[in-house]
Specification:
It is a single chain. This protein is α+β, with helices and mostly antiparallel strands and 268 residues long. 17% of the residues lie in helices and 35% in strands. The protein is built from four helices and twelve strands, in the order βββααβββββββββαα. A hairpin with a 2-residue loop joins strand 5 (99-106) and strand 6 (109-116). Helix 3 (210-222) crosses helix 4 (224-231).
């Protein structure tokens, strides 16, 4: 994204920020790109590929075109490059009514839950540093099991940030938990006239309790094969063959990922 100078800020301005999210465990590092589309009234945080996939899924023609593209790529041994919804969280904030709605899914479970924006409390420090040519101020918060250190730009007076972050007198351009496991870092910012998107497939989701959903997601993440077998009523000792997107057989144990906990840990 090309960076543009935002000399003055108006209440009607709409901004788009790109963030690099880095998750680091003891044995691997995962990097995912996200976008924050925000204004003083509302915002949406999403992965652009996941949003695009939801948009094409609304029509038979879109689903057919995607299926043909995926089949073609897999036949060429490019299965790992097929666009997917692995970055599947959407966070929609409404500053006018002080609410936040989160959409998340795993396997075949699609959940939405609501939170009040008053839940996140901040301590603002006096340290400063420059990010994307903006002087940013230090702040910290304890939120849903983690302590976070963030940097926000008062020259961008929208009380928003990546993921669920909000409530400071300026946009949050960087956020990292104190264990170093999770980090969001702004990589680009622009003023735009493109309106903030809405969820293309809200019909996928049902309302659930946040902690109950995260407990189920943890169970799936720790042992995907066991979770799927149980949900389908298949005996755990069944002879199951697992392959990757290119049809190569893989060890089911390689799918397990218990080394990195979620952004929120208070579900335990």
């Amino acid at each position: 994204m090309c960076l543009v100078a935002i000399a003055t800020f108006a209440q009607s301005d709409i901004l788009r920020l790109d963030y690099k999210y880095t998750a680091t465990s003891r044995d691997k590092e995962t990097i995912v790109d996200y976008r924050l589309h925000t204004s003083t009234e509302k915002s949406m945080f999403y992965n652009t590929t996941s949003l695009w996939m939801d948009s094409v899924s609304r029509s038979d023609a879109g689903r057919t075109a995607y299926g043909e593209m995926a089949a073609s790529m897999m036949s060429k041994g490019q299965g790992a490059s097929v666009p997917d919804r692995s970055a599947n969280i959407f966070v929609c904030k409404s500053f006018s009514d002080n609410s936040m709605r989160v959409y998340d899914d795993f396997c075949d479970q699609f959940a939405l839950y609501d939170e009040n924006l008053d839940e996140m409390r901040w301590e603002i420090g006096d340290s400063v540093k420059v990010i994307l040519d903006y002087e940013c101020v230090f702040a910290s918060t304890n939120y849903h099991g983690r302590t976070w250190i963030v940097w926000f730009a008062t020259d961008l007076p929208i009380q928003d940030g990546p993921w669920k972050f909000h409530g400071l007198p300026g946009l949050i351009l960087s956020a990292e938990d104190t264990t170093g496991s999770h980090k969001f870092e702004a990589t680009g910012i622009e003023r735009t006239k493109i309106q903030i998107p809405q969820m293309y497939r809200p019909d996928y989701y049902s309302k659930e309790d946040r902690k109950s959903f995260l407990k189920a997601k943890r169970k799936y993440t720790d042992n995907p094969l066991a979770y799927i077998l149980q949900s389908q009523g298949i005996p755990p000792n069944a002879n199951i063959k697992v392959t990757d997107l290119n049809g190569n057989e893989i060890d089911p144990n390689s799918l397990e990922d218990s080394s990195l906990d979620f952004l929120e840990t208070d579900y335990r």
